[in-house]
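User: I'm putting together notes for a lab meeting next week and I want to include a structural view of one of the chains we've been expressing. I don't have a solved structure, so I'd like a prediction I can at least talk through. The sequence is below, exactly as it appears in our construct file.
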Amino acid sequence: FDPRHYLGTHCYDFPKTGPHRLRFLLESVKDLRETLKRKGSTLVVRKGKPEDVVHDLITQLGSVSAVAFHEEVRGI
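Assistant: Thanks for the context. Below is the predicted structure for the 76-residue chain, given as structure tokens.
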């Protein structure tokens, strides 16, 4: 979870993620983790800036050969 997604926007300081959306996200992640666990896998969840968290995970794991990600599409 990127803390920057929970700050106010630059226009009028509206929250980017309100309490209802946050609850939905948390419930969805919990459900995904439980589903993966039943299938013998797991889900790594971290809070922080992705560029820092991914770097730390790669360092911790040590033998990473590839990293895939997607970038949020922003409106024009």
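A couple of points you could mention at the meeting. The helical segments are 19-38, 50-61. The mean pLDDT is 85.

User: Perfect, that's what I needed.
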